[in-house]
Automatic annotation (TrEMBL):
Gene Ontology molecular-function annotations: uracil phosphoribosyltransferase activity
Pfam families listed in its UniProt record: UPRTase
Protein name listed in UniProt: Uracil phosphoribosyltransferase
Presence of keyword Glycosyltransferase: yes
EC identifiers of the protein: 2.4.2.9
Gene source species: Vibrio spartinae
Domain Phosphoribosyltransferase: 12-214
Uppermost EC category: transferase
Keyword Kinase: no
The gene coding this protein: upp_2
First and last residue of the signal peptide: none
């Protein structure tokens, strides 16, 4: 049961569970991991897109009739938390061709688990766009909070940000939504918790390492 306001969890279907089974298996190859992860990422982005604002728009069809549909109210910008967040860029580019992508580099100390900010780069008009913040793993929430703070420093409001997340821990979600109550988060799973190494349970391992093939077996 989802107890968090503004946290949107993908509906738990048999097919989504099938995708998670493929992805979470320890022996899954990089190709298997990426193929099935990309399908979940697509679902996450579609769900995130439903949270955007739209205006009415009519277009003329090839037979001369008018179709009354919708157009985006504002532009969209994807922002990847390097490196794992970059896994979401290909599907984003397919859905929003020509839309910009920003970058944030935050690294977490392996001993203290505390995040440090290193770098960011955004389009000049990011404050006028809806922002998809790509952060697949939300464990303690420290890195995500640093990323959100970086966007706020660039005049992006909480209401403009939609976090696109693969797995989240209850502790991390509580940490983030308490600090940023107007933020929206889309995830495919709220996990059971974290172990003593701050890995989520049952978890998926290090998403970035597995997706980009630098996972130590």
């Amino acid at each position: 049961m989802n107890e968090f306001q503004n946290v949107h969890v993908l509906p738990k279907t048999a097919y989504l569970s099938y995708l998670h089974t493929k992805i979470r298996e320890k022996s899954a190859s990089q190709q298997t991991f990426n193929t099935y992860s990309n399908q979940v990422i697509r679902q996450l982005l579609i769900h995130a897109a439903e949270l955007l604002q739209f205006n009415d728009k009519g277009v003329i069809t090839p037979i001369g009739d008018i179709y009354q549909g919708y157009d985006l109210k504002t532009g969209v910008c994807g922002v990847s938390v390097i490196r794992a967040g970059e896994s979401m860029e290909p599907e984003y580019n397919n859905m929003f061709p020509g839309s910009p992508v920003g970058k944030i580099l935050i690294q977490r100390d392996k001993v203290s688990k505390l995040p440090s900010y290193y770098y960011s780069h955004f389009p000049a008009d990011i404050d006028k766009r809806s922002v998809f913040l790509f952060e697949p793993m939300l464990a303690t929430g420290g890195s995500l909070i640093k990323a959100i703070e970086t966007l706020l420093e660039n005049n992006v409001s909480e209401q403009q940000i939609i976090v696109v997340n693969f797995l989240a821990s209850p502790e991390g979600l509580d940490h983030v939504v308490t600090q940023f109550p107007n933020l929206k988060i889309v995830t495919s799973s709220i996990e059971e918790g974290m172990n003593e190494h701050a890995y989520m349970k049952p978890g998926i391992g290090d998403f970035g390492d597995r997706y980009f093939g630098t996972y130590s077996k």
